Amino acid sequence: MPSLSEIQPGYLIIIEGGDGLGKSTQLNMLKDQLESQGRRTLTYDFPNKSGTPIGQLIGDFLRGRFGQVTPEFLGLAFAADRLVARKSIVEALSAGTVVLCDRYVASNIAFQGAKIADDQRRAQLDGLLRWLEYEVYELPRPDLEIVLTSSDQHYLEGAHLARANDPTRAYAEGQADIHEASSDLQRAVNLYFRGLQETPALRKVDIEDAEGNRRSTEEMAAIIWGAVMAAMQPSQRG
Ligand SMILES: Nc1ncnc2c1ncn2[C@@H]1O[C@H](COP(=O)(O)OP(=O)(O)OP(=O)(O)O)[C@@H](O)[C@H]1O
Ligand SMILES: Cc1cn([C@H]2C[C@H](O)[C@@H](COP(=O)(O)O)O2)c(=O)[nH]c1=O
């Protein structure tokens, strides 16, 4: 039987975490580092938010146009947004490209699940989204998820307010989006991510150091680079 690296020579690396914790900053630094070492990369930022009809609907939801939407139904829209990108992700991985995603399936489970208080219903949503995205839509599973967390609620509240001119936030028209506006949601999402178990394919990186000081972008990038190098060792692929 061929090894995974023969079937899929590329790598799928995801940067996950709560809103505004520095995911896109780290994704861009990782992309530069990989490219400086001769690796071809392709980046995605989920959800698309404007480039497709589904992304436009998601952008409208985040701007509050539909009010609160039942988490199970909302999860279907985010999953469909990823399905649109599936073919090009799979082709890139087959061609040996490192595909870097700012958010992926785990964000759907984290954000929709954080809106559900009942444990049984939340577990059903978790199963529904994993089944739909990985089994029905056959989205490739990540080789490595880097999950940014914070032990200081300060960074989870109002981080967007200082970023009115950030072009990646144009969809929100200068306001907090419907997820950012809820500190309860941000807290629950961060708790979910902090509770994930680390594995060779999942590495949590707290944005604060042991003394509670925010790590610099360079320090974060060095930690993430170490995790990426470890995950890309041939021995991790079997
Ligand atoms: N280590 C850091 N220290 C201080 N500020 C940072 C650090 N990393 C990123 N920032 C700043 O925090 C803000 C949010 O960063 P970034 O856009 O990378 O976060 P994000 O997690 O991708 O956000 P979103 O969830 O809204 O997409 C930006 O203004 C960025 O310059
Ligand atoms: C991919 C994905 C994202 N979300 C949530 C997470 C954020 O609150 C917003 C938009 O993300 P961005 O980082 O501001 O671009 O959408 C989600 O609920 N489900 C998902 O699959």
Automatic annotation (TrEMBL):
Function: Phosphorylation of dTMP to form dTDP in both de novo and salvage pathways of dTTP synthesis.
Gene3D superfamilies attached to this UniProt entry: P-loop containing nucleotide triphosphate hydrolases
Enzyme class: transferase
EC number: 2.7.4.9
The reaction(s) this protein catalyses: dTMP + ATP = dTDP + ADP
Domain of life: Bacteria
Protein name listed in UniProt: Thymidylate kinase
One GO MF term: kinase activity
Every Thymidylate kinase-like domain range: 15-148
Pfam families on file: Thymidylate_kin
Annotated residues for binding of ATP: 17-24
Family named by the database record: Belongs to the thymidylate kinase family.
